[in-house]
Structure formats: structure tokens, C-alpha cells
Amino acid sequence: MAFGAVEIQRWTADDGRIGHAELALAGEVLSVWDADATVAKAVGAGAGIERPVTMRADGARSGWIVDPFGHRWNVQTPGEHVSVEQLRDRVGDQYDITD
């Protein structure tokens, strides 16, 4: 993968679309301390909100923004630790989750 990224986890829908992918760059998953504050700061700088910040099935708090150049960003703060089995229970058969 570009930039030496390593796939940590992927959620693939029945039609083959990827609903979520978690990557590590240089061995680190990139996240922020406070997703709400980061999104608010980005909006103040001209980004638009695509999806408001909410709690996700995997325990993270995250939202989607679009920067002024049209790039989509998922901003997240890690939350509770959720095992792959718990995650599969939470999302049901909506996605095939790899680990």
C-alpha cells in the first residue's frame, strides 16, 4: 500500500464495497484526542460536515468531513476496546469483517 500502510481491519459489504478500513502508517493508527473539537476546528477553517461525530459500533467516536479541496476525512477518537467477535455481533451480517 502507499506510504507503507498496513491494513488492520476491513468491513466489506455483500456488493464488494468497503464500508470501513483501518490502516496503520509507520505502525501507528492515526487518531485525534477529541474528534468533536477537531471537527469543529476543521469546520471553522472551511470544511463541511458529511457525517456528524457519533459513537460507532467499534467503540470509536468519529465523524466525516470534506475539506475545502474536496478530500473526505474520517476523524476519530478511540473509545472502548471492542473485540472482533463483539463487533460482528453489533453489525450483524451487514459486513464481512476481517482481522
Characterization of the model:
This protein is α+β, with helices and mostly antiparallel strands and 99 residues long. Helix content is 18%, strand content 37%. The chain has 2 helices and 6 strands; from the N terminus they run E-E-H-E-E-E-H-E. It has a 3-stranded antiparallel β-sheet, covered by helices on one side. A hairpin with a 5-residue loop joins strand 4 and strand 5. The longest helix is centred in the middle third of the chain and has 10 residues, at 35-44. The radius of gyration is 14 Å and the shape is globular. The two termini are 17 Å apart.
Which shape, going by the Cα principal axes?
Answer: globular
Overall pLDDT level: 84
Q: In percent terms, what proportion of residues is strand?
A: 35-45%
Number of strands: 6
Main sheet summary: 3 strands, antiparallel
Number of helices: 2
Radius of gyration: 14 Å
Helix content: 10-25%
Q: What's the short version?
A:
The chain is an alpha+beta fold and 99 residues long.
Name a few traits of the molecule.
3-stranded antiparallel sheet; alpha+beta; 6 strands; 99 residues
Any chance you could write out the topology, listing elements then pairs?
Blueprint: E1 6-12, E2 18-24, H1 35-44, E3 48-55, E4 61-66, E5 72-77, H2 84-91, E6 96-98
Antiparallel strand pairs: 1-2, 1-6, 3-4, 4-5
